[in-house]
Design the sequence.
């Protein structure tokens, strides 16, 4: 009888170890999956920031007040490329145009950058009706773009502990993190304007670090200016003043 008990014990012994290990692995996988989703959500904040920057820049470029374009002398009236840049930044793809003759506004394959191709494709000057139609298709104002940006960030902060844990886990990987290998432009810079400051490029891991410090730790509603972010990344310190972009919604 003892021999039978010993044999059965030896038979079931491996299962006593396999089950808890499987359970731990499952829990770990779920946590990693949740963190991956959380980090993707944080990176989407950048999309909202770029959209806000682009809409604000476009409204300022055309001096739009009460849905009326007041500046009719700018480069936007004659060059396809500038519209492509704004279109990609605001909607992610080219704006859809009803008339076949407007097919020149197909999505540009050149990444958004102040140093895009030096070849600018000229077009016939647009009429005021055409320009008003393009603005209408955007369907967004600086105020609306900022509200979307701010509200999305607020929703993340409702679960800030979970997001903070995920950010810390990723930052701990350092250069081994997949996000350390992916570059991104921190800000949108209209190519219709001369370059007045460096066009800040950083890694997605840097972006997570900035988000942790300024949105979660300091509890800002939106991300800091490019200068503030650059100083923080390069000296792990804060400049005495911080110009937050939401202060210029009405510009």
Sequence:
């Amino acid at each position: 009888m003892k021999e039978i008990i010993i044999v059965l014990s030896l038979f079931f012994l491996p299962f006593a170890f396999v089950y808890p290990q499987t359970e731990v692995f499952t829990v770990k996988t779920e946590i990693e999956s949740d963190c991956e989703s959380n980090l993707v959500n944080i990176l989407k904040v950048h999309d909202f920031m770029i959209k806000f920057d682009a809409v604000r820049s476009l409204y300022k470029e055309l001096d739009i007040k009460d849905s009326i374009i007041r500046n009719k002398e700018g480069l936007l009236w004659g060059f396809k490329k500038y519209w492509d840049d704004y279109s990609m930044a605001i909607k992610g793809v080219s704006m859809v145009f009803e008339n076949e003759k407007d097919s020149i506004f197909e999505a540009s394959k050149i990444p958004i950058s102040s140093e895009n191709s030096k070849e600018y494709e000229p077009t016939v000057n647009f009429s005021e009706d055409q320009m008003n139609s393009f603005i209408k298709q955007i369907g967004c104002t600086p105020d609306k773009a900022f509200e979307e940006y701010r509200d999305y960030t607020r929703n993340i902060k409702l679960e800030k502990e979970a997001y903070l844990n995920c950010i810390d886990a990723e930052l701990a990987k350092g250069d081994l993190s997949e996000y350390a290998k992916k570059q991104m432009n921190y800000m949108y810079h209209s190519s219709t304007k001369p370059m007045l400051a460096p066009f800040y490029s950083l890694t997605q891991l840097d972006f997570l670090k900035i988000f942790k410090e300024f949105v979660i730790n300091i509890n800002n509603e939106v991300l800091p200016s490019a200068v503030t972010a650059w100083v923080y990344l390069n000296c792990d310190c804060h400049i005495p003043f911080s110009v937050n972009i939401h202060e210029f919604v009405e510009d």
